[in-house]
């Protein structure tokens, strides 16, 4: 029956439709399993990388204080910050105080205590003690309300020479967390230097066995896969490998993190040219992006080792480089990256805040038009509406824009945005 009440003619019976539906039932289930979509949870804008022997109870606070001190020395007001980064005065005025407030309130969104390259090879007793100590400090920070939203460790990889040590460190850390009260909600584990899906499967088995040992809900422990070997992108048979890594994680993979320097070196790129914007990096991240699309597994870009240290002009040069690289990543939908030094926090948040503040009004207006089905100069699809709501939510979650600002333009609040994401 048409909308005007007039019957419409068809040729296919209900039995035909039911037969087609039955034939595709397996495909429907496979699509739902493999491509569940965005998890709808907050994604941190960065991961701060701290060697395990350097990590201390006041690490997060000290990173924020050091970042503020550097701002005071090299860009004490919005005008000088604008000049340092090439921002307009108007945009710098919106961003600068928000950056300072963020550094005071929540300088680190995701902290990774490193037991791999940043820690190196130590006597077993020393690494055991460091893993247990890291767990105690994390538990104390969570209990006191001073932990970042996300925190965890990077263990040694699954290659034969360091496998047992990595497994033991993981076990010591997780066991100490359980003894101190349980796994924190924001726990994140990172598995580096993955080359074959079987290594991911091994990590899955470890998580399963730990959950069984402690009576945890199956699937409670997830982990990130660090993409820093060429084999993780292109397998020995010539096939793209990243999707197989995600599949091997059996739903436990939470992120793919690009390892700038290991991957570049593996491709033969000389040290002076190893960068987040090198063509080999762009290729790897494009493969990662397509493989992860729709799976709920999120991407993180890598880092730059050009640090903002030394004299004022040297700091500002490093800031401009970092700011530009972060903005480049954001434009390519890599919404997270790695920061290696407290001095990179001001430009991380400046780049993120500028990205969202420059675009949130236009995005909110387009979303309002979509929700109202109003006429506009852009006709958006449901997929674009999901992208718009995701963009606005990320801006709110990191502190770039206020929910009230978004709601005033888009006409929908937090629950409405989540419903469209």
UniProtKB/TrEMBL annotation:
PANTHER family: CITRATE LYASE SUBUNIT BETA (PTHR32308:SF10), LYASE BETA SUBUNIT, PUTATIVE (AFU_ORTHOLOGUE AFUA_4G13030)-RELATED (PTHR32308). It comes from the Bacteria. Its cofactor is Mg(2+). GO terms for molecular function: lyase activity. InterPro entries: DUF6986, Pyrv/PenolPyrv_kinase-like_dom, Pyrv_kinase-like_dom_sf. Keywords: Lyase, Magnesium, Metal-binding. This is HpcH/HpaI aldolase/citrate lyase family protein. It comes from Streptantibioticus rubrisoli.
């Amino acid at each position: 029956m048409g909308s005007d009440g007039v019957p419409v003619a068809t040729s296919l019976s209900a039995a035909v439709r039911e037969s087609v539906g039955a034939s595709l039932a397996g495909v429907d289930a496979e699509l739902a399993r493999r491509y569940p979509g965005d998890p709808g949870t907050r994604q941190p804008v960065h991961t701060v990388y701290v060697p395990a022997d350097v990590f201390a109870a006041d690490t997060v606070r000290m990173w924020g204080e050091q970042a503020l001190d550097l701002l005071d020395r090299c860009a004490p007001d919005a005008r000088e910050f604008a000049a340092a980064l090439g921002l307009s005065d108007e945009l710098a005025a919106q961003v600068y105080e928000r950056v300072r407030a963020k550094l005071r309130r929540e300088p680190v969104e995701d902290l990774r205590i490193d037991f791999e390259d940043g820690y190196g090879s130590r006597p077993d007793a020393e690494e055991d003690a460091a893993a247990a100590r890291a767990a105690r400090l994390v538990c104390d920070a969570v209990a006191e309300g001073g932990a970042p939203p996300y925190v965890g460790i990077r263990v040694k990889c699954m290659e034969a020479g360091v496998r047992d040590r990595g497994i033991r460190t993981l076990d010591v850390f997780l066991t100490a967390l359980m003894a101190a009260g349980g796994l924190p909600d924001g726990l994140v584990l990172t598995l580096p230097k993955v080359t074959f899906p079987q290594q991911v499967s091994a990590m899955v088995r470890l998580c399963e066995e730990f959950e069984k040992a402690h009576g945890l809900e199956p699937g409670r422990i997830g982990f990130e896969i660090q993409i820093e070997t060429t084999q993780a992108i292109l397998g020995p048979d010539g096939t793209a490998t990243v999707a197989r890594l995600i599949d091997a994680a059996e739903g436990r993979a939470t992120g793919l993190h690009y390892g700038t320097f290991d991957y570049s070196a593996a491709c033969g790129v000389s040290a002076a040219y190893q960068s987040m914007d090198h063509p080999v990096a762009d290729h790897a991240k494009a493969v990662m992006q397509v493989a992860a699309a729709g799976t709920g597994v999120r991407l993180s870009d890598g880092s730059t080792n050009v640090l903002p240290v030394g004299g004022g002009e040297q700091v500002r040069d490093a800031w401009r480089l970092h700011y530009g690289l972060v903005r480049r990543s954001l434009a390519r939908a890599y919404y997270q990256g790695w920061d290696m030094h407290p001095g990179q926090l001001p430009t991380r948040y400046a780049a993120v805040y500028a990205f969202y503040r420059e675009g949130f009004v236009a995005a909110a207006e387009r979303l309002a038009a979509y929700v109202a089905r109003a006429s506009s100069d852009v006709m958006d699809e449901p997929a674009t509406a999901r992208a718009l709501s995701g963009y606005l939510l990320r801006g709110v979650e990191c502190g770039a824009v206020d929910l009230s600002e978004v709601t005033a333009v888009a006409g929908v609040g937090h629950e409405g945005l989540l419903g469209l994401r």
